Amino acid sequence: MQQIAQEAGVSKALVHYHFQTKDQLLVEVQARSFRRLAQGIAALGESGAPSIERGLSALDRVWDLLVESRDQIPFNLEMWSESSRRPDLRERLMRFTAEMLFLIEQGIRQTLGPVADRLAYPPDRLARVLLAVLSGLGTHAHFAPGLDAAHETYRDLRLLLERALRWEGTP
Prior knowledge:
mainly alpha; 8 helices; globular
């Protein structure tokens, strides 16, 4: 925490005031990067008429972020493992997950517009599925010997979602 305080140019006490542990700080750093991504997706939804193409473009941005941050996967796995022994960390990770689900659902609604209300799965359930699948793909991207297989799996997921969104006359 001392090193973090020095890098930030603040006192260690100030860092501890806002974050009781380094784990809490690291989870918040992750949450902040996801919030920035959500803002970018919101801007994408506001830059023109909502559409399936905008939704898929937003999904591409999320995938790009996952690939860029795949080195964080071991940290994420360690944090979740540690949370089984630390209720405070578990609570923070559950709040983080709830916030991510909200941001994903909001992104679905902003980029798809009225189509979101006609999906076979309501946006909140689709958000849960996307979070789980993308988390798994992010893990795959980290541990796979190369990114080719992970990119191919992502393209398959994207194609599956595109076909599902266009099912039975969805515009």
